[in-house]
Amino acid sequence: MSMASVPSHDHSSAFPQKNMRDPAGHVVRFYTDDSSYLDALDRSVEAVLKAGDAVVIIGTESHRSGLMSRLSACGSDAARAIEEGRLILLDAAETLSRFMAGGMPNPVPFANVVGTHIERARKNGNGRVSAYGEMVAVLWGEGKFDAAVSLERLWNQLAENHSFTLHCAYPMKGFDREEHGEYLLKICGEHSSIVPDEIFASQSRAQDNIFASTYLVHTTQALQTEKTERKEAEKLLRRREAELAELLENAPEGVCQTGRDHKILWANEALLKLFGYSAGEYIGQNAAAFYSQDNVLPKLWEKLMRREEVYNFPAEIRCKDGATKHTLIHANGLWEEGELVRARYFIHDVTAQKEMESALQKAHDELEMRVAQRTVELEQKNFHIREQAEKLESTNQGLRDLSARLLHVQDEERRHIARDLHDSTGQTLAVLTMTLSSLESEVRRLSPELAKGLADNAELVRQVSVELRTLSYLLHPPLLDEVGLGSALQWFVDGFGQRSGIPVDLELPSGFPRLPRDLETAIYRVVQECLTNIHRHSQSPVATIRLSESAGRVILEVTDKGKGIDQQELSRIASSCAPGVGLRGIRERIQNFRGDLEITSDGKGTRIKVIIPMDVNPALKQSETAAN
């Protein structure tokens, strides 16, 4: 700030007479210290109170306390004036809080709050009121310069409706910056006059002279503040430069500077230690001499000349001992007036990382080779395993085919035996029965006792004949071939109920179709085996057989209400390790037809569910052909 910025005497228009009832009704004081201000305030308030007028003080806590102490010391009865309502003391900050909104004073609440106090003081006095306000000074101290100017204007607006004299006060030390000059003019422009501070007492009391003196103090303070801040900034800059130099010198990363000619101007201790050179051996040399590849520095410099920031630029640098360091370089340029003055290099050593990467790559290659070798070995083993699995599957398939043929041969043999028993042995027993009956008639005339013996023998022959017929039917019921599965099952469950005493409920849908002969035989044998197991093991009082057809599949369910199967035993059955011949036979029969066996059991009974496709498996036809 120069002295030319101080307003001349022509600035008297900067403080026009405001529209107040008293030309001196809105005055401002810029004081240099609190003591002089409080002395002046004490004299002014004491004079007003002695005249019987009213006073409204809106000040800081320290100023209010200082004023009351001075009034008491000079014998003024301030306490009585407060009781009479002629002396009203208000806190500046608290009063501000009642009408400030968004950082600016709100006109309506301001008029209500302050106007009420002005009117109350006027009524309690002789009609004249002197107000002393520091709310603008509080706002100024908080840096709310526009709010302070706005509040000065609201005071002027309030004076249009209320009669009072207003004394504003600002500490001069608050106007210590060049930018405060504009606001100083605005503040003075809102007042009817400026009250001189004690330092201007010996000068002319003309308003222009007072303003010029006030502005000169502001200018002097601003210059002093600027000078002090500049010194502090220079001091801070020197300290920061020293800290930066120390930081770079002691940085763990290598740092150096070169000029436009690539000569090394400076290098820190970390860089010298990294490459093994002393400062005299390194500084002053051309940087290109230390790069292993000749094209590295030209490429890096080309980027710098385009004003680019260079990041992670790879370079190999020769050390004093002949070793090579792998580095990543971050570089930038210092430009002045469009010219590259210096280049700054930050060099990070990645030699250990490169060696580790090389070792990892080598290990990776070795691992890949071992994996490839192991893969070949595993493929060979897998090939042998697949061969063994194919052989095992072929063997298992052969066993399944053999089992199917055996079961088929067994059923055919039962059919032949049943037919032979019925056709030959049964006929022989029938002839024997008729012969014994004829002899009985002849012998009864000769000897009644002998006739009775013949009758008993004839009865025994009839019983043997019945049992032989039952045995023949059990081996292979003729109904199975002649009528079908439904009738054969009905005959069997009726006979089973009579022989075992266990009633069996057969649920068979009407119109159940005929199935292939081998399939009907298999289902019949499964039912036989299930009922035999129920009779022998379950202790069930009843049994239920359900036979149905759905979606091209035959579904057979045999349930009982017996003691069930132990869970451990059930697990063994599910894993095809069942010890019983019956269940194993059931499983083999349905497997020949690609069927499924499902066994569930609890303490309330057991359910065996068999699901078999209705179409005869080609493998079974081949087995049947081979058996025939």
Task: Report the radius of gyration as a whole number of Å.
Answer: 62 Å
How much of the residues is beta strand, in percent? 15-25%
Share in helix: 55-70%
| CATH-defined topology of the largest domain | Rossmann fold
Q: How far is it from the N-terminal to the C-terminal residue, by CA?
A: 128 Å
Would you mind describing this structure in some detail?
- This protein has 628 residues and is of the alpha/beta class.
- It folds into 4 domains: 3-228, Rossmann fold (3-Layer(aba) Sandwich); 254-349, PAS domain (Beta-Lactamase), CATH 3.30.450; 351-476; 482-627, Heat Shock Protein 90.
- The protein is 56% helix and 18% strand.
- The protein contains 20 helices and 18 strands.
- The strands form 4 sheets. A 6-stranded parallel β-sheet has the order 3-2-6-7-1-8, with helices on both faces. A 5-stranded antiparallel β-sheet has the order 10-9-13-12-11, sandwiched between helices. A 5-stranded mixed β-sheet has the order 14-15-16-18-17.
- The termini are far apart.
List the helices and strands and how they pair.
Layout lengths: L25 E6 L2 H17 L3 E6 L1 H13 L4 H7 L2 E5 H6 L2 E2 L2 E2 L1 H18 L4 E5 L1 H7 L3 H15 L5 E7 L8 H10 L3 E3 L11 H43 L4 E6 L4 E4 L1 H7 L3 H4 L13 H10 L4 E9 L5 E13 L2 E11 L1 H96 L1 H28 L2 H5 L2 H16 L3 E4 L9 H22 L4 E8 L2 E8 L6 H8 L6 H12 L3 E7 L2 E9 L4 H10 L1
Helix pairs in contact: 1-2, 6-7, 8-9, 13-14, 13-19, 13-20, 16-17, 17-19
